[in-house]
Amino acid sequence: MIFTSQMLHLTAVVLQQDAERVSAALLKLGVLHFVDARTVDSRVGEAPDAANAGTQRVRVADARRRIETVMQLGGLQPVFGQAAEPNAPEVDVEAVHRTLDRITARIDQTRGEQNRVQQQILRLEDLLLGIAPAGEERHAADQGRGSSLVEVHTGTVAAARRADLERELKRYPVVISAAPARGAYESLSVVAMKRNGAEIRALLGAHGFTAGALDAIGSPGERAANSEATLRQVREQLVELRAQQTALNRAVRETIIEAETQLRRDWHQLRLRELMLTMRTHFGGTAHAAVFAGWVPAESRPAIDSALTESTAGRCHTEWHTARELEAAGMHVQAPSQLRNARFLKPFEGLVTNYGIPAYGTVDPTPFVAPAYLIMFGLMFGDVGQGLVLVLVGLWGLRRNRTLAATGKRAGGLMGSVLALSRLIIWCGASAMVAGALFGSYFGMSLLPPLWFDYHGVVVGHPHGGPFNSILDVLVLTLYFGVAVIGCGFLINWINLVRTRRWFELVFDKAGVLAGSVYGGGIYAAGAFAASGFRVVPTGWPVLVFVVAPAVLFVLKGPLSGHGGSPAWWVMEWVIELLELLSGFLANTLSFMRVAGLGIAHVTLMVAFFQIAEMAAPNGFNAVALLIMIVGNVIVIILEGLSAGIQSLRLNYYEFFSKHFQPTGVRYQPVSMEVAS
Amino acid sequence: MSALSRYAFINAKLRGRISNLISTAQFQSIAAARSLVEAMVLLRETPLAALETVYNETGDLALVETELQRLEFEQFTAVARHVATHANAATGDFVAHLIYRHELSAYKNALRCWFERAVRMRGVEEKLPYLWRGAAAGNPRLRAALETIVAAETIQSALTAIPNRSLTAALTPVLEYVARKGSLFAVEIAADRWYYARLRELAAAIDPTDRRAVEKIIAIEIDAININWLVRLREFHQLAETEAFELLLRGGGTINQDVLRSSYRAAHPAQALLNALGQSSGENDAAHGIVFLEAVLRQELLRQVHSALGGYPFTVAVVLAYFILKHNETRTLTTILQAKNYQLSAERIGALL
C-alpha cells in the first residue's frame, strides 16, 4: 500500500447492559482504534463506571505484569492462544496474587536452600584461596610452617572423639587429613585459616588433641599424597555443591513450569479483562446508554456492523463518517495512520516510523525507502563475501533472539527491535552481495569478473573494461542516483499535497511545483554545462521556462499567502527563500556524493590491507598474510558496514524525507489481542 | 594537551554511561515488586542484568551486593586508567584517589570485622567471604592485608596491617576512643577525614578549571558526611560538642558552622538540621529524622552533580559526577534489594530513598 489506509470514524450508542458483550465482540475483531467519545460530541458525559474501570484496569494490569515476571523467571513467554475467545469473566485479582505469593514463597524457600549451599561453597573457596597456590601450601606444610594465610595443626586425637572434633571444626574453613588409626589414637592434620587460629586451638584442646611432629601422620611422601587427596576431596566437594546449586536453580524453574497451566490461564484472563477495561475507559454515556467512538480501516466496517448488531441484538445506533466529513463538520479529530506493508518491508517500515508517523492520507514512503536504502548500502559496501558475513550475522541475530525469547531472557520491545535489526542486516548483506557481484569483489578479491564495472580497478586506476573508467564516473553515477531520489521526493510531496488539498503549498512549498521546476531545470542546465566541458553556460528557453520563470513566480508567495506584510518585505522574503532553496538543492544533491565517497573508502581500505598482507608475505602467501586479510575484512565489515548503514539512513532522512514527509500522524493502535502487552 | 582532547572521549563515554544508569522509574518498579525474587527478575531490563544471574545461581543476596560493588569498582578502575593515560599526572592522581575509596571501605569493613571478633567476641566467618570478593577480588596484597587486620590481636596491630602508612598515621591518634567509647566511630571518621584531606590536597594540584569544577562537589560531600556523623555522635555516642567538632572532616563550609553547633545542642539534632535546611520529615523519631536527613543531603549532592554536568563539559568534574551517580545507583539498588529481602512495602522503601 502506497498510502496510509482509508479510515472510517465510528460513533456508537449501545445499552449499558450490552456494553460488556460489545466490548468482547470489539476485542475479538481487534480493529477499533478508540478515541474519547467526548472529543466528537461534548454532550457525551463520562460513563458512570469509567473511574471504576480505570482503577480496576490498574489492578488487573499489575497482576498481569506480576505473572509475566514470574513466568520470565521460568523461561516462559505469555501469549494469547490461537483459539483465544474474549469471553473474560470477572477475574479474582486477589486470588491470582495469592497463587503468585504461593509460587514465590516456594521459590524463596529454594533460594534460601541455595544460600545455605552457597555458604558452604564460599567457605571452601575461601580455604582454597587461602592455601593457594596449592603447591606452596603443600611445601609449607611439609616444612612444618603455615603459608601467609593458613596454618597447619598436627598431632593425635583419641579415635572415639575424632568425629565430634571434625564436626565442630567444620564450622570454620578447614581441610582435615587423617592417617590410618594406630591403636586408640589417630594422627590428624588440620589446615585452617590463620585468623581462626585461636578458635581452632581451643577446639582441639577441648577434644584432647595432642600436638605432635608431622611424622606422626606418616612419611613425607604419605603426607604429600594425603594432602593432595584432601585438596582433591575439597575440590570434589565444591563440584558437588555447585551441582546442587544448579539442581536447586533448576527446581525454581520447575516450580514455575509446574504452575504453567494455571499461570497461562490467569494471564490470559487478566489480559483479556485488562483489554476490556481499557475499552471501557474510553466509553462515555449515561446510566443506561454507553457511547464510544473510534477509527477502523474502511474495509472492516461490515465486520464491525455485524458484530455490534449480533452482540446487542440490534439494540444499537451507529454513525459512520470519513475523516473529510468530520473535518467539514468542524470536528478536529485526527484519523490514525495505518501502514500496511508486506512482511519483507517491515524492517524498512521501522526506519520510517523511527523518524515519524506519516500524516493520515499521505504516501507511506516505506516502499521507496527500501530500494533507496539498499541501493545506497550496496554502492557503499559492495562485496559478495562481506555481504555474506552480514547475512550470517543477521541470521545469527534472529536465531539468538528466538533462543533468548524462548528462555524468557528477552521480551517485549527489545525483542522486536533486535528482530527488526537482524532482518535489516540480512537485507543489507544481500544488497552488498548483489553489488559485490556487479563490481566483481569477493572479500576484496576479484575471484570472478564484474557483471557491471570493476570498482577496485576504477579506484586504483586500472579499470578492466566496463562503463566506468574513473572515480569521476562513479561520482557522477551517485549524483544521478541522488537526483532520482530527490525527484521522487518531489513527486511524493505533490501527491501528498493534492490528496490533502493544500493547493497553495502545492505551488509554493519548498518542494512544491515551482521549486520542482527550478530543481529540474537546474539539473538540466548543470548537465548541459558539464556536457560542454564546463565552457558554455546554457541560456536557452528551457532555462528561461523551467528555472527563471518559476523563480520569479515565487515572488507571489508573500502576497498570496495572506500573512500580510509590505511589498518590500515580500521581495526580501523572496530573495532569502530563493537563496535558501538554491543552496539547499545544491547541498541535497551533492550530499549523495558521499555514497561514492564511502564506496571508494571501502575499496581503498581493502587495497591497503592487501598491500600490508603482501608486505608480510613478499615470497608468496603465508599464514601472517591470511591473518592480516581476515583482520582487515573484519575491520572493514564493522567500520564500513556501520558507516554505510548510517549514511544510507541519513540520506533518506535528510535528503529524501525533507522533501515530502509530514511526520505528524498518529499511529493506528487498535485495542486487540494481538498487541503486545 | 588541551582540555578538549583530554576529556572529549571520556566525557562522551561517561555521559553515555550516565544515561544507562537505572532510571527512577525502574527503581520504582523494582521497589514495587512483591518479593525479592520478582525484584531480581526486573533487573533483566537494566544494564545490571548480571546480578539476577548471580542471585539465581547462588540465592545469596550478600553476594549480589558484593558483585554490584565489584562491578562498580571495575568500571571506576577502567575510567581511572583512561584518565591516567590521557590527562596530566596531577589529574591522574586525583582520580586514582577517588577510586581509593573502595580500598578504604574494605579496610573499614575489615576493622569492623576485627571489632566484632576481638572486642565483641562474635563470629564473623560468614561475613568474610564477601570482604574478600569486593575491592580485594584479584588483589592478593589487599586480601592479605584484610586477613591480617581481621586476625589481629589488638587494634594497634590491626592498623599496622594497613599498607598505607599515611592512613595508619591518621587513624592512630583516635584509638583512645575505641577503648573509651567501645566503638569504632572515631576510626571511621578519621579514615574519612584522611581521605578527603588527601582529595582536597590533590584537587589543589590540578588545573584551575578542573579544580573549580570539583571543589564545590567535594565541599558538599564533606558537609553531608559531617552532618551525618554529627547526628550520630550526638544521638548514639553522646559526645561533647568540642570533641565532636574536632573529629569532623575539614573542608566543607557550604553550611554555616553556627547552625551546625546549635543543631548539635538541640534535643533532636536531625530534626533541627532539617529545619535549618528548610525541610521537615513529618515525624519526630530520631531514626526517621536521620534517614530523611541523609536523603535530603544526597539530593543536594545529586543536584550539584547535575549542575556540574550541565556546565562546561571538558573538565574532570564529569568523572567525579559519574562516580557519584554510579555510586548512588549502587547504594539505591542495595537499599531496595535489602528492603525487599525484609519484605518492606514500596511506600516504606520510598521513604528510605
Instruction: Give the helix level of chain A as a range of percent.
Output: 55-70%
CA radius of gyration of chain A is 38 Å
Helix fraction bin of chain B: over 70%
Mean pLDDT across the residues of chain A is 86
Oligomer: heterodimer
The largest contact between protein chains, plus residue counts on each side, is: A-B, 44 and 28 residues
Gap from first CA to last CA of chain A: 27 Å
**Cα shape of chain B:** globular
Secondary structural class of chain B: mainly alpha
Which segments of chain B are poorly predicted (pLDDT under 50) over 5 or more consecutive residues?
none
Envelope shape of chain A: flat
Low-pLDDT runs of chain A: 133-147
What would you note in describing this structure?
The complex is a heterodimer of chains A (677) and B (353). With 677 residues, chain A is of the alpha+beta class. Chain A contains 24 helices and 9 strands. In chain A, the strands form 2 sheets. In chain A, strands 1, 2, 7, 8 and 9 form a 5-stranded antiparallel sheet that branches. In chain A, strands 4-5-3-6 form a 4-stranded antiparallel sheet. In chain A, helix 14 runs antiparallel to helix 15. Chain A is flat, with a radius of gyration of 38 Å. About 2% of the residues of chain A have low confidence. By secondary structure, chain B is mainly α. Chain B is 76% helix and 0% strand. Chain B is built from 19 helices and no strands. In chain B, helix 17 packs antiparallel against helix 18. The longest helix of chain B is centred in the first third of the chain and has 31 residues. Chain B is globular.
